[in-house]
Specification:
Helix content: 25-40%
Largest sheet: 6 strands, mixed
Number of domains: 1
Shape: globular
Strand content: 25-35%
Strand order of the largest sheet: 1-4-5-6-8-7
Structural class: alpha/beta
Order of helices and strands: HHHHEEEEEHEEE
Oligomer: single chain
């Protein structure tokens, strides 16, 4: 019985390059390699999407563990694509190649796990970082013409209930 070792994104990219194959940035290995290794790219992209100043991102950037704590026996391992912190924010990027309700629910679960982690970390409500999830979608599940959709907790009149989280779909 042979046990095949799972290749790292870098090993997979090198293998593909050796074959002369080209993959788009929406390929999971390519995406994770770019997003993991290019802090300046992440800073610029995050600024363009959220408006958080790029210099704040670059000065206060730190990696976060993207493996979430499993809360019950039937929950599968949860691993976010990209997760990092900056002063006042926890940022989660998810690359979604195909639409399914399961994808939306899974990403909501990731955002909920981040919010719970923040709540469990002894912050005061004033100093609690804002949780932001950025979904880079290779589909338009909302059938809208907007390139960027922003979701927040709002009432029926549009008043934002909780300013400590938001979710983007692009």
């Amino acid at each position: 019985m042979s046990s095949k070792k799972k290749k790292t994104p870098e090993e997979r990219i090198k293998e593909l390059q050796g074959k002369g194959e080209v993959f788009p940035a929406s390929n999971d290995h390519i995406y994770k390699c770019i997003m993991t290794n290019c802090v300046l790219f992440k800073a610029d992209m995050t600024y363009q999407i959220t408006g958080i100043p790029k210099d704040l991102i670059l000065k206060t950037y730190y990696e976060k563990n993207s493996e979430f704590v499993i809360s019950n026996a039937i929950e599968r391992g949860k691993r976010s694509d990209i997760l990092f912190g900056i002063e006042g924010y926890v940022i989660n990027y998810e690359l979604n190649n195909k639409y399914s309700l399961a994808t939306i629910i899974r990403n909501d679960d990731y955002l909920d796990k981040i919010k719970i982690d923040i709540s469990n970390n002894m912050y005061t409500y004033d100093t609690m970082p804002k949780a932001i999830q950025i979904n880079l979608n290779n589909f338009n599940h909302l059938n809208k013409k907007n390139v960027k959709e922003v979701f927040k907790s709002r009432d029926e009149n549009g008043v934002v209930e909780n300013v400590k989280w938001e979710k983007y779909h692009l």
